[in-house]
Queue: 4 jobs
Job 1
Amino acid sequence: MEIDQILDHIYKLPENSKMILKDQMEELVYPKNHILLKADKIEHHIYLIKSGIVRAFAPQEDHDITFWFGQEGETILSMRSYVENKKSYENIELLEDCVLFQLNIDRLNQLYQSDIHIANWGRKLAEIELLKIESRMISNELLSAKERYDLLMSESPTLIQRIPLKYIASYLGMTPVSLSRIRKEK
């Protein structure tokens, strides 16, 4: 996805404001398996995904717990670092080679003070992230494992071809064996 599409998907900015925001971004390329964000560190950037797929996870003693996938057009950020300038709790791993747009959080906060349109873009970004979290929490509490799988496949059908099944199983809160059983029933 091109940067204009990604920015407009969050909030349609006037051209002048969009140019100011784009001028603060750097396009970066990282290889598969790169750890972009590390838990227990303050993250000073947000990223927009031009191409590739990533996962957010928390390491546990016997296995990682995957709780989010991001793909083209989505934002990568530690909300804790973004909002409170505190250490993040998540790791972000690239599951494919990725092209990302990087934006410094301090600089972004300065732009919020000087451009109301960019401030509104930031508000919409936070709202989108909040809704993702709410949706995830509700589905985990109210849906069965099979229903969570069906929802994932209806919302993002290509993920199953791009992400190792062990990460999808972890994301859905089940074992890889249970995921295989659900997939065989289809």
Note: The beta strands are 25-30, 35-37, 45-51, 54-59, 64-70, 75-76, 91-94, 98-104.
Job 2
Amino acid sequence: MRTARLRTVHPVLWAGWAALAAGAVLCVLGWYGVSGELYAERQLPYLASCTVPGAALIVAGAVLLTHGRGALAAARVEELYGLLVAAEPTGAEESGTAAGDAPLAVSGDLLMVPGGTLWHRADCPLVAGKVESIPVDAKLLASGELGPCPICEPVEETD
């Protein structure tokens, strides 16, 4: 899945960079031609043949790069979603519980990542093994600045 999507994205990125480069070259040639002419009537052919198409190519290249980067980001999100879905435990069907009923993490300790907006259980796959994760500050939790992680579904502790 990933390679098929990336094969369609990379040509768009290359086309964007090529259009930007060609547009820049045309703008420089147009500027050089205009700068050598004294009269406006003689400058118009350079503007029409080089500068205007060069500016259009620069705009087209910027649009292609934006579209290509957006498609690349979408491909990465799809890949991560596929990994998350594939990480579903297979023992859930055998025990008789649905996979969506039980949280992935059951620890009572709450952690957060500095600058993050969610709190997690200590054994949540999103913070497990991360050295930068720290215990949740009670002030942040009480003020409502942190929300619960949708993956591990922690329960808010009231002290």
Note: The beta strands are 110-112, 118-121, 134-135, 147-148.
Job 3
Amino acid sequence: MGTNGSTMLQPLRQGLPPLDPAAVSNAASCSLPARYEAVREARRFTRHTLDQWELGDRFDDVCLVVSELVTNALRHATPAGGGPAGDPPPSVRLHLMRWSERLVCAVRDASKDGPVAREADDFAAESGRGLFLVESFSDSWGWHPLTGALGGKVVWALFRLPAS
């Protein structure tokens, strides 16, 4: 990976888990439209990327987490009527980054509001269990508001990979 991947990560660096961005071995990202079909697109992108990185065996767990993070971003972070003066709603961006023994999925959206997890035993709730699933299927997760031109926030989930 050349400087391209490092450049792509520069604005996100403040919101990612404490891993050296210069040590990323692979990085890929895609912009997703602010529509629920974006979840399907995110799954397709994740499948293709993990296959390229020979991590297809991690697809089920990673895909579940990516689906939840993208769904949360669409549900909570994109205004229903679009932006000012009928502008289209801001897109959501999915980033997949691989270190030698770590994989990070990060979803950036336009909202500064942090994700709120519901109690895991509140099974009557219609929604809100997504972060419980993210916590259950990833090794750690977190979020961070972004400053500067990007604004919004990034929510990330980290997966440990076996040493090669």
Note: The beta strands are 26-32, 92-98, 102-109, 140-145, 153-160.
Job 4
Amino acid sequence: MTDQDRRTGRDETEEERADRMWGELIQEVRVAQTGVQILFGFLLTVVFQQKYAELSDVDRTIYVVTVVLGASATGALIGPVSLHRLVAGRKVKPQAVRLASGLTQIGLFLLLATMTSSLVLILRVATGGSAVTWVVVAAVGWYLVCWYGLPFWSRRRHSTR
């Protein structure tokens, strides 16, 4: 098979393509759901720890923002499952795939924000604030490269015009 043959895509109907894309999307969402659920569960326990009472007002605000971001990310990343259940059998899979894909992108962005906020809080408490900004910027930069930079580069480099 030549490069050109591989790039022309599959010979599938819109429904077959939607079925394939739905399966791929759900596999991807499972990974993100697990991560966000573990992170969110951990965040929910922090308020019940003894050290929470010692946090400054700024750190408590960061914590509340982090919990709200985590709850929002969880909702967006679980949304595709509910969407699928509620529209299954209604002959709207192509539209559902587009909607679920959008929810997943929003969920990933909110997960990025949750992880960033979590890092800020944890590093502020763990280090007393020294070098937090640089470590968080480096971590977020890494997330952006992995989650967006490489995929966009690959799409641009390997997609046909």
Note: Helices lie at 3-7, 14-46, 57-87, 93-127, 132-158.
